[in-house]
Write a sequence for this structure.
């Protein structure tokens, strides 16, 4: 079976830049353009609208200079207007050779925006196309609001197509400008047109207002469209355009009779670069490129992956230059933790693994964020218990009020006997230590001196994640360290102190 080759036109730098608050610099446009054509290997890119600004002119010029030197100039396209050749002159000065001419694809737009008849509009378009040809410019034609045209003024659309079929245009582009189509309509409308004009090249341009961008693009292809317009990360006005990554994945996995040249391996790289340049963050659950989409959370899923890849599908992360992750939290099982330990090159016996698993579940219940980088710290905290637990901090109240010294009230158990104490200090932890000292004075026990106090956050962690407090103690005969782990610095210090008390009591 011969494959139908589909053109992919990326319009991130034009339609995608119409995302609210986004404006790419000239150097950013050039970087993205290079990546799209050289690495991602899309067929064409639409990089700007003509006549926008001096900055846009310079950006286009930078891209076309590079494209001319590297054999990509025919893949560079600029949106132009029916304006008596002003747009054509602008793009020629900027070095572009392909115009995407914006015309009216619905009678509604023609009547109320242009206030012209169809024949008047066609005459203007014909002049533009003739001028472009004269100046060595190739023409593709956008039928703006084509989807509403097919719904409400189909006779006008087909009158337009009759006219265009006589013109020297390379591509006719069918945009669902307002993202109003259903998948069925996308299929039916494209098929009706393609059946009537099988030899003309038609691109389908989907928007995502009803979250149907991918579905509509796929149905457009099924109906016979020869090309698709996509944007990186689905950027674009309002809800954006059909997104590049998920559309390409769907084509490759579910449309075996269609071939696209896009390099899946760099989809994620390109997506992250555009995220950086645009400032528009990729949602964590965005298919293919989101932070969490290849992350297994439930322990049963990790267990299934260990046994026979039971939770794998064709949508493998390696296809996109990514790796599968196993989340750590209250839903984690031993299998999740084992997967993360393997990545870190660590091994635990079954008993220790159970202890660490329980600790992670406890942290997850407290809504604390646990990352792979936290694991060595959690292991150290859990397994650093070479003593019998004879001292336990039952409860405490830490008070810090303006104009008053910090104070604490604590309850601890020492050798099965409960003690309560209140004390003040220079800070909350100092007040806590003073209360502890008072209790041990009554027991005629001297506590070791605190000689160093260090707090650190695991690499890669965030401010809402765990912190480790390491306290160095010195008694008459030895110096030693204890560690405490918690999201709260003071609490982690209290946990380190509890360990110290157990060491000196045992």
């Amino acid at each position: 079976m011969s494959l139908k080759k589909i053109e992919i036109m990326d319009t991130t730098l034009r339609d995608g830049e119409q995302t609210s608050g986004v404006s790419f610099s000239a150097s950013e446009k050039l970087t993205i353009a290079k990546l799209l054509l050289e690495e991602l290997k899309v067929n064409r890119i639409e990089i700007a609208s003509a006549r926008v600004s001096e900055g846009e002119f310079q950006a286009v010029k930078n891209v076309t200079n590079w494209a001319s030197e590297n054999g990509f100039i025919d893949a560079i396209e600029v949106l132009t207007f029916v304006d008596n050749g002003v747009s054509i002159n602008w793009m020629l000065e900027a070095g572009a050779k392909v115009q995407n001419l914006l015309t009216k694809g619905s009678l509604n737009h023609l009547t109320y925006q242009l206030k012209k008849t169809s024949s008047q509009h066609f005459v203007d378009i014909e002049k533009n196309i003739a001028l472009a040809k004269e100046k060595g410019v190739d023409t593709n034609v956008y039928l703006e609001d084509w989807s509403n045209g097919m719904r409400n003024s189909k006779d006008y659309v087909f009158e337009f197509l009759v006219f265009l079929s006589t013109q020297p245009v390379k591509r006719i582009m069918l945009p669902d400008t307002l993202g109003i189509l259903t998948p069925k309509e996308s299929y039916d409308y494209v098929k009706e047109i393609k059946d009537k004009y099988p030899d003309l090249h038609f691109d389908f341009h989907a928007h995502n207002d009803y979250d149907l961008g991918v579905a509509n693009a796929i149905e457009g292809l099924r109906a016979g469209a020869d090309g698709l317009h996509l944007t990186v990360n689905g950027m674009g006005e309002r809800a954006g355009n059909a997104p590049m990554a998920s559309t390409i994945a769907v084509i490759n996995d579910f449309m075996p009779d269609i071939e696209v040249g896009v390099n899946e391996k760099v989809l994620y790289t390109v997506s992250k670069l555009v995220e950086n340049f645009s400032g528009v963050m990729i949602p964590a659950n965005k298919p293919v490129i989101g932070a969490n989409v290849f992350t297994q959370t439930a322990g049963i899923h990790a267990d299934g992956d260990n046994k026979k890849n039971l939770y794998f599908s064709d949508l493998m992360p390696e296809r996109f230059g990514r790796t599968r992750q196993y989340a750590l939290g209250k839903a984690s099982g031993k299998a999740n933790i084992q997967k993360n330990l393997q990545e870190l090159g660590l091994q635990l016996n079954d008993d220790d693994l159970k202890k660490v698993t329980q600790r992670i579940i406890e942290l997850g219940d407290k809504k604390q964020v646990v990352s792979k980088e936290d694991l060595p710290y959690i292991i150290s905290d859990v397994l650093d218990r070479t003593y019998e637990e004879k001292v336990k901090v039952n409860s405490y109240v830490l008070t810090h009020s303006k104009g008053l010294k910090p104070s604490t009230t604590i309850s601890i158990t020492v050798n099965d006997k409960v003690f309560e104490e209140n004390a003040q200090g220079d800070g909350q932890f100092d007040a806590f230590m003073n209360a502890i000292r008072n209790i041990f004075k009554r027991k005629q026990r001297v506590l070791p001196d605190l000689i160093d106090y260090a707090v650190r956050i695991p690499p890669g962690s965030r401010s809402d994640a765990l912190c480790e407090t390491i306290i160095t103690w010195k008694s008459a005969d030895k110096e030693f360290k204890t560690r405490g782990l918690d999201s709260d610095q003071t609490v982690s210090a209290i946990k380190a102190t509890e360990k110290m008390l157990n060491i000196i009591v045992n």
Remarks:
- Residues 391-505 form a domain with the Double Stranded RNA Binding Domain fold (CATH 3.30.160.340).
- Confidence is low (pLDDT under 50) at residues 298-307.
- The chain has 17 helices and 18 strands.
